[in-house]
What we know:
- The protein is built from three helices and seven strands; from the N terminus they run ααββαβββββ.
- It has 142 residues and is α+β, with helices and mostly antiparallel strands.
- The longest helix is centred in the first third of the chain and has 22 residues, at 4-25.
- It is globular, with a radius of gyration of 15 Å.
- The termini are far apart.
- Strand 5 (86-99) and strand 6 form a beta hairpin.
Amino acid sequence: MTSAADRETRREILKFLRKIETAWLGGRIEELRGCFREDAVLVAPDMEQRLEGRDPIVDSYAQFLEEARLLAFDSEPPMVDVFGDSAVTVTPWTVEYEREGQIHREAGGDLLVLARERNEWKVAWRTLLPGEVPPENGRRGR
């Protein structure tokens, strides 16, 4: 049985995940920077390449927004598992963007490990889970 405290923690995490998504989609890089631990790690889907530290990770978001024009983005409700002051979340998504004159459609998910610091959730670790490319007529704008 889920307690009221567990439900509140889950609501906090869902609100935090929405903050990350809206900051990224809105190009609010400094707001996004505040969502990551200073020692955060981003691991590429190949599990070999990695970025270490909040600034290089957030700069990679900014670089994508500079190089690509976002055409559509849609995310599904996140899966959230909480373990005290840590949590693991998976948020499935689809995206369509234009880069260098080419249209790209991708699907996947963000796998995040969160840590609570001074009553605030922060991303400690992130990777992208690859998914199947969605059909062209299945896109939704956002």
